[in-house]
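Protocol step 4 of 6: structure prediction from sequence.
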Amino acid sequence: MRQSNSILTERIAPYRNRLMGMTALSLKNVDASVEELQRTSRQGFRAALLYPTVDGEMMVDLPEMNPIYAKISELGWPIFLHGAGSAKNPTLKRLEDGGAGVAYAVLSDAEISECVLRMIASGVFDRYPNLKIVIRSSGGGLPLLLHRFFWKHKGPAGEKRYSKFSSNTF
């Protein structure tokens, strides 16, 4: 992660008036990710890139993520959520491309939608109300689906139906 961010720093350095970096994070080491956010912020980076899973487990709604969210919120950066869907299902392997097209076009976007839902349900945006996220591709259709969520969210301001989030959040 650090090496990748350092290479990006070198490559965009001649174009700092036009380009800015996005810090790649490793959720396998939260403390190192927080340090990397601080380091890259001094180098002009202005966003964080987050793959929401580690070894197949979604991490975004776990308490271990709080130091990362706190630092990103403090920096005022957006988080670019990037799915990493994979075609592990044997049925998908039968497709001409081994399921890669489905994995990248559908499963990654579904992963991002699940990621955002879990962030909302776990109270991430209640704890960090200034946190901003960028939802890529068809995961961006999530605000259009909020009316289908009939359960309620219990945040600091009391209970609120998820369907009411669209006017305040998106």
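Step 5 (inspection) to follow. Residues 100-121 form the longest helix (22 residues).
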